[in-house]
Structures are given as C-alpha cells and as structure tokens.
Design a protein that fits this description.
The chain contains nine helices and nine strands. It is of the alpha/beta class. The chain has a six-stranded parallel sheet. α1 packs parallel to α8.
Length: 260
C-alpha cells in the first residue's frame, strides 16, 4: 500500500553497463596492476560504482608487452583462484573471461598469423563472427601506415573489430574520414569512461562525447590500470553528465557472452 510514496532506490552510476569489458587487472603482465592486493582494492571500487562483471584485457604489444595467449590464459586461471582465496568479505565484481588489447604495430601480424588472438563473443552468436570480437588499439602518439588495411584484413579473416578508445588518438577527430569509414565497415568503438570525466584531458573528453553523439560508440570501458584509476572512476561516478548519458544511451557491454 502507498508504494508510490516509497523513494526509488538509486543504483550505482555504472550499473546500467553491468560489465566492464576493458581493464588491466591481471597482475604483472603489462602496465596495469602490480599485485593481487592492488587488483582486489581496485575491484572493490568497481563494484561500488556499479560493475557486476569484469573482463580482463591485458596488453599484447610487442616488444613492450610480448604476451602469449596460452600463458595469459594460465595466469588468468591462477589469478581467479588467488582472488577467491584472498578476497575475504570484500564485495567485488565477477571475473567472467580474459581476452586482450592488441596493439596494431610491430609483432601484430605474427599474433594474427599464429591465431594467437583472444576475443569476446556476444551472447547471441548470430550477432558476431565465428572468431569473435577482437579489441585492438593504435599508437597513442603517431599514426602508423597501413592501419586501414590491417583493420580490413582482420575483418576479411573473420574477426569483428572493436577499436579501443578512439578519442585518445590525437590524429583522429569527430570529422575523421578514417573513423567514418571504419563505422561504415562495421567496426565497433569503445570509449573510455574516464575520458568522459576529463581524465585524459579536454581534447579526449570533447571527442568522446562527440563520438557518442555521432552514434559511433557501442561500448564503454574503464581501461582500469591501478588504484589511481579507481579513484578517478569514483570521481567519474558523481559526474552528472555521465549519469544522464547512461540513463539515456544503451551500450552493448551486457550483451557479451560469459567465459569466452
């Protein structure tokens, strides 16, 4: 009785996304988390901000982070066991898979030709290719030759491509012919949540919102690395513009399949 008088429960800011599909919390494999304890501390913050699931995406970036798929999968299995044994009563998101963030640069062709690529899939298999969705990134400093051709090759070889944080590449803007062509080819874009809060500067923030307004962004990710990023995520969770965006925009994070 009088249910209409009850105050509606406010969900944490990022609850509509359900899943964070881009983070670097597998310890000691890249420039992300440096320890189990740091990962646990970060995951507590992610849970508080509304994430129920996370998918780990360590860098595959030769020669800086020359990771191999089999090694990463074994490390992930070990990490899941360590988390379960050490989390205590801390509330953290579920870890549902490990894939990777592959930089299109030196060594990438070797990963491709060896089939050493870890991917996602959608819950509905008809929505993605058999080889799945591959998260790629470009250089954050200068544009390499042949990026367009490599993206097209990936698609021809049966991968669906997700381009990580296009707002962070200084050589692309909201009127980029290249990015528009990628969208016409069916490339998905993933913007960083922290970009929306100005963490990477005003230029990246402006472009992130413009890309979303263009209808170009299908995924949001934290790109979480460490405790400093967790503090920034908490700050972003109070950003009214981000809250409104999530109330009015549907992203595909929650459509990704578990354990792929």
């Amino acid at each position: 009785m009088f249910d209409f008088l009850k105050k509606k429960k406010t969900l944490p800011t990022f609850a509509p996304l359900v899943t964070d599909m881009h983070c670097h919390l597998l310890p000691l494999v890249d420039d992300g988390s440096k320890s189990l304890e740091e990962s646990l501390e970060v995951m507590v913050a992610m849970k508080e901000c509304g994430f129920e699931e996370i998918r780990l995406t360590p860098h595959f970036n030769y020669p800086r982070f020359p990771n191999k798929a089999d090694d990463i999968k074994q490390r992930y299995t070990n990490f899941c066991n360590e988390v379960e044994a050490n989390k205590g009563n801390r509330q953290i998101p579920r870890m549902t898979s490990v894939s990777g963030e592959f930089q299109v640069g030196d060594g990438f062709v070797e990963y491709l030709e060896a089939g050493d690529l870890l991917t996602y899939k959608f819950t509905d298999p008809s929505q993605c290719s058999e080889k799945g969705l591959l998260l790629i990134e470009f250089s954050l400093h200068q544009k390499r030759m042949g990026l367009d051709e490599m993206v097209f090759r990936l698609q021809m070889e049966g991968y669906d491509v997700i381009l990580a944080h296009p707002e962070r590449y200084p050589y692309y803007d909201a009127h980029s012919d290249t990015l528009e062509r990628f969208k016409e080819q069916g490339v998905y874009f993933q913007a960083n949540i922290l970009s929306l809060d100005g963490f990477y500067g005003e230029a990246a923030q402006k472009k992130a919102y413009e890309f979303i307004e263009n209808g170009w962004v299908e995924f949001l990710g934290t790109d979480m690395h460490n405790v400093m990023y967790a503090q920034a995520l908490r700050h972003a969770s109070a950003n009214k513009k981000i809250i409104k965006l999530l109330e009015n925009t549907e992203f595909l994070n929650s459509k990704l399949a578990v354990g792929v």
